[in-house]
Amino acid sequence: MRFFRKGPLLASFALAVVLSACSSGGSAPPAENGKSNLPASEDATLKPVTLKIMFPGDPPANWDEVKTEMQNRMADSLNVTLNVVFIPWADVLQKRQVALSSAEDYDLIWDNNPVQNIAAGLYEPLDDLIDQYGPDIKAVRSTELMEANKVNGKQYAVPLEVNFIRPWTFVIRKDIREKLGVKPIASYDELIDFMYAVKQKEPGLTPFIPNGAEHIGLKLAGMLDPAANLATVLNYPGLYTKGNDGKVYNIFDDMDPLIMKTFEQNRKLYKDGILAKDALTLRNSEFTKGKAAVSTFNDFGVNLSTRTSLEKSVPGAAAEAFTLYSPDMKLNSTYKAGNFIAVPVVSKNKARAVQFLNWLNQRDNYDLLAYGIKGKNWEEAGEGLYKPVQANPYAGIPFAWGWNPKLDRIDASLSEDVVALNKWERDPSYFTPDALAGFTFDPSPVANEVAQLSNAGKEFYDPIVMGVTEPSEGIAMFKKAAYDNVKKVQAAFQKQLDAYLASKK
């Protein structure tokens, strides 16, 4: 799975707060021949260390074999054993906060949005540790990526990203499309026509189960007219930016026609039985179970995990992708990452944890992490490409602890147009810096309003986006419940943004 989470095109920002630097500590680095660099007054040998790592989701098939190979490679150098704790996606956010607040002994933690934990002083600033022990961490990431993901000028977490926009794809049951005699999808209108054909001729299959409100809200509205540059403001429902003008808008006072058109279209899809009745709770995992004809994913093309899961659930099934993106688009990017790996301040192995991340950001080790054992799980397929071994594929999980655009390979079994899209999105030179690039928002002055807005968004905004409520009625209810909070968050955001933009002049 790709988290995904939130992304450069949809303006995801880090929190800017003045934080006191926490002291670096932990195990000293190993020297050549496995000897320690500890001072002579301390233990002269490098002691074994077990790194406890929190990871989202479930372990992939063959994980134990790959983990064993990783540890074998480190036995004569880092002397590291891995204790990777996989937390189901439904529980990972809550359990991460419990672990951090209770000072549980994790050494590395995946975080999709680390701003609150940075503000709380729960993550170690890594600049000095990366300078000393992480040259490869920096070597495989562009300056844009590293700098855009600092907080108050400091690197509190390693950004994990391969893209400078957030890829987003409709994934379609190819076998169903061909069965119904529908030509390959080439436009959003044709996609909708296909969904209606499924509704009419395949009654046992739900036509459309998108992966949540994010994918068919402002993201869809913005892609129907990329020049509009519509983007959500963080996870604050009702707030958005447009036109790259450095202004923040709300849907109550400044409803963009593209946004309203999208809401109305989603409402029609829901009423017509195209969108699942349980659309608020269902996600794209339903597609891989064979229960939907169309879903949405944060990838270009159909990733290996989706393909293999669908084929296992429905023998003979096949998937294909349709995207609204094109390499000739002129898009802006904030260069923000969607995933991060952080070292908790309570870790007793900070230096070794950074050394391990550096190890992961070396070619052969990254290949192992991402694609499994060479010759068994994957094969070389050209510069920057790999080919999964179909009989024994390994759906790697690099997004949560190693992802970077220089080492990450593209699946050569994807079509040429999808490979081209993947290469395009990984090159920062194709994108224009967004006006908000580098801006960080401190929500602490409106923390209560942010919390209340989040709750109101789940109750009122998400049903609007997913078509469950009639748009004008839903917006009226949402406004009654959240207008004051929206306005206060908007004002605080705009004030800080204005100050940031003024400082750049």
Automatic annotation (TrEMBL):
Pfam families: DUF3502 (PF12010). InterPro entries: Bact_solute-bd_prot1, DUF3502. Keywords: Signal. Residues 1-23 form the signal peptide. Residues 436-502 form the DUF3502 domain. The keyword Endoplasmic reticulum does not apply. The keyword Signal applies. PANTHER family: ARABINOSE-BINDING PROTEIN-RELATED (PTHR43649), DIACETYLCHITOBIOSE BINDING PROTEIN DASA (PTHR43649:SF12). This is Extracellular solute-binding protein. The lineage of its organism: Bacteria, Bacillati, Bacillota, Bacilli, Bacillales.
